[in-house]
Amino acid sequence: MKLFEVYPINNVTITKARGSYVWDDQGEQYLDLYGGHAVISIGHNHPHWVTRIEDQLEKIAFYSNSIKIPLQQELAEKLGKISGKADYQLFLCNSGAEANENAFKLASFHNGRKKIIAFSKSFHGRTSLAVAATDNKNLVAPVNETENVIFLPFNDEDALAECFKENGNEISSVIIEGIQGVGGINVADDSFLRKIRSLCDEYGAVYLADCVLCGYGRTGKFFSHDFAGVNADIYSMAKGMGNGFPVAGIIVAPHIKPKHFMLGTTFGGNHLACAAALAVLEIIEKEKLMGNAVMIGKYLREELSAIPELKNVRGRGLMIGMEFAQGPELTPRPDLVKAILHEAFERKLLLLSCGTYGQVVRFIPPLNTTDEEVETAIGVISKSLEAAGA
Fold first, then answer.
1. The pLDDT of residue 332
2. Count of C-beta atoms within a 10 Å radius of residue 130
């Protein structure tokens, strides 16, 4: 049997990892500022995380949600404390797409409506409704197509207000990433998020904050939407939640009420997943990693902005993008980005691209990345830019 080849693969086999570094099967060391797609939030193989999982594995690894699992309540309490959303309710699942799928479904149960507002360059996952609300037609199979999703321009308050004016009584939910990840590290304006909140309140729609990639302290606040000073009704989480162990979830505002069987999952919230997720929160809290994300992110953006070839460095905390476009019409240069990434890889730095055309280099490293690691990366990037002819 062969693998079903749907991924472009870098020619490296990683066999060991620790902190912000990984090693291949030849013993070569790489600095990882991609973090396995923003999954590695506390560093690879953090000792406390490993111990938490090993200790739990010695007791029980899995049982279904047909029994009491005290670890789930322990996780909910710790998450409520660190996120500042202690009055919310936690539903656990396995992946970001599944989290968003459940968020859409729960919103529709809540208000009995069907329409969803999503935004240009959005990415919300690859399951049925999640991919229908993703602004990339290459990912949407015919079976996923629906007339229930309305796409609007990102950060356009007038377009949003007009859409609510025309369709307000049919809109079930509005979903938005606080910072678009796959779309190109595009930051949602604080005023735009506040507009979403006010319109959802006015028309009875549900505000869904997709924090799968931009949550869990990555931006310096627990959820990137918190910069706007308003609360969403449902937050979706995944990526850095388990530091590589598959775990995800949604937290739900208290006015949205549960009932038996409206949502469900076999593997979500299992014993090992909760142990991994608790370890992540404990480390974020103990090592003050949200503060570190602010300081190191600021340092990284300043160092990148000081490189003359770089004209558009953006993001928050440790979710940063640098875009390459040329000419008066700012034509995207994915070819240049590909060359830069290749040169960086040859110099043992792991990065990947994003954006509509692959024209953005993105940095989504562990939250405990250090000054020294940033300095190493900047040196590699400078040499890579020169070698690529940027």
1. 85
2. 28
By CB atoms closer than 10 A (0-12, 13-18, 19+), residue 254 is exposed
Find, among 218, 277, 214, 250, the residue nearest to 74 by Cα: 277
Judge whether 390 and 340 are in contact, CB under 8 Å: yes
The encoded tokens of residue 129 equal 């409704």
For the stretch 8-18, what's the b/e string if a residue is b when 16 or more beta carbons lie within 10 angstroms of its beta carbon? eeeeeebeebe
- Please list, in sequence order, all residues whose beta carbon lies within 8 angstroms of the beta carbon of residue 47, skipping any fewer than 6 positions away: none
Q: What is the pLDDT of residues 302-321, one digit of tens each?
A: 999 998 877 789 999 999 99
Residue 74 CB coordination number (10 Å): 15
pLDDT at 325 over 80: no
AA identity, residue 199: L
Which domains does the chain possess?
Answer: 14-46+288-388 (3.90.1150.10), 47-286 (3.40.640.10)
Single-letter amino acid code for the residue at 315:
G
